[in-house]
Design a protein that fits this description.
Layout: E1 4-7, E2 11-17, H1 22-26, E3 34-36, H2 39-48, E4 54-59, H3 61-71, E5 76-83, H4 86-96, E6 101-107, E7 111-118, E8 124-131, H5 143-146, E9 151-155, H6 162-174, E10 178-182, H7 186-191, H8 193-202, E11 206-210, H9 211-218, H10 222-230, E12 235-239, E13 245-249, E14 252-256, H11 269-282, H12 287-301, H13 311-326
Parallel strand pairs: 1-5, 1-9, 2-7, 3-8, 5-6, 9-10, 10-11, 11-12
Antiparallel strand pairs: 2-4, 7-8, 12-13, 13-14
Helix pairs in contact: 3-11, 9-10, 11-12, 12-13
């Protein structure tokens, strides 16, 4: 069984159910996007939505994926940066509760937060204040933190700190680790296309993208985008929402469907899909089963608000994964 190390923005999600999309217009937040905001705007958004139902959970794209892998029983680690505050303590406790080995650098700045505004149609829009998360620097990454791991998992949001991504990938490759990358958000891909291209073409072995992200990167629809992405990676995955996912490795191309669910909130769907897929990959399962594992986790998390699931649901997920893994 392979071990997976994640690096990402250590955030605490503020999951907020809004009653209409006027709130998004009020704060100039394009629906379905992730917008980086400063401390002032973050505070304004929190204050302007405090009348709505909300709850906290450890978050950040890579952290969600690593947390999910930990809940599946895989050996995992996470490197990030948080503040010396209660929010940072909350993040660390939540990750460790899933069995994740955490290496968190503590800063004077506040721990980052991501206000997730969930619309009636279950689409989510993020107003993210990165806070201390941005203070993780390339010089702090040491090869000793990577030793013992087989796969490095990176979230695309880290592209704003390209030296950090470059250093992480170089260390991983020097230790013969595979590098997996999720493209994160279509607007980030559009903004940082050149930097993504350099990272993908030089380092990435496994790439995850939803259809909007794939189109932002390639300019093509899912099938063509899959072909283009696969030219530079061992495995390319394009997630197509309710249609499932497209997966390509060499000449092998698969379409994997979804499970029947009652959609409530799409937050974390892509992150948990990656958890399921990488769990299968780390354990040597076929691409089809990797995709099915991803569909099981993504399907379960969208029935709830937020990217975290309770113990009872995880018990059901693990049973379903076991059932799939033993099928001929």
């Amino acid at each position: 069984m392979k071990k997976i190390l994640g690096i990402g923005n250590a955030l605490v999600d503020v999951m907020t159910q809004i009653d209409n999309d006027n709130v998004l217009k009020e704060f100039s937040l394009p629906k379905g996007s992730m917008q980086l905001v400063d401390d002032v705007k973050s505070s304004e958004v929190k204050a302007g939505t405090e009348k709505f139902k909300r709850r906290l959970a450890s978050g950040g794209s890579a952290a969600n994926t690593i947390h999910g892998l930990g809940m599946l029983g895989l050996k995992t680690g996470f490197i990030g940066s948080v503040g010396k505050d209660e929010t940072g303590d909350f993040f660390e406790k939540d990750m460790k509760s899933a069995g994740v080995d955490t290496l968190l650098f503590r800063r004077e700045s506040v721990t980052g937060t991501a206000v997730a505004l969930i619309s009636h149609d279950s689409e989510r829009t993020f107003a993210t204040h990165l806070g201390a998360a941005t203070e993780l620097h390339d010089a702090e990454l040491k090869a000793k933190y990577f030793k013992g791991y087989n796969i490095l998992y990176l979230e695309g949001y880290l592209i704003f700190n390209k030296p950090l991504v470059d250093t992480a990938c170089k260390i991983a490759k020097s230790l013969k680790m595979k590098v997996a990358l999720d493209l994160a958000s279509y607007n980030v891909v559009e903004m940082m296309h050149k930097d993504f291209k350099e990272i993908i073409e030089n380092y990435v072995d496994i790439i995850f993208a939803n259809e909007m992200e794939a189109k932002a990167y390639t300019g093509k629809d899912p099938e063509e985008a899959l072909k283009i992405l696969s030219e530079f990676c061992e495995i390319a995955v394009v997630k197509t929402g309710s249609e499932g996912s497209l997966i390509k490795r060499g000449e092998e191309v698969l379409k994997v469907g979804t499970i029947k669910v009652k959609l409530k909130d799409t937050t974390g769907a892509g992150d948990l899909y990656a958890s399921g897929f990488l769990y299968g990959y780390a354990n040597g399962y076929s691409l089809e089963k990797c995709g099915l594992f991803g569909s099981v986790l993504a399907g379960n998390v969208i029935e709830l608000i937020g990217a975290k699931m309770n113990g009872r649901r995880w018990t059901r997920i693990r049973k379903k994964i076991l059932d799939i893994s033993t099928e001929e």
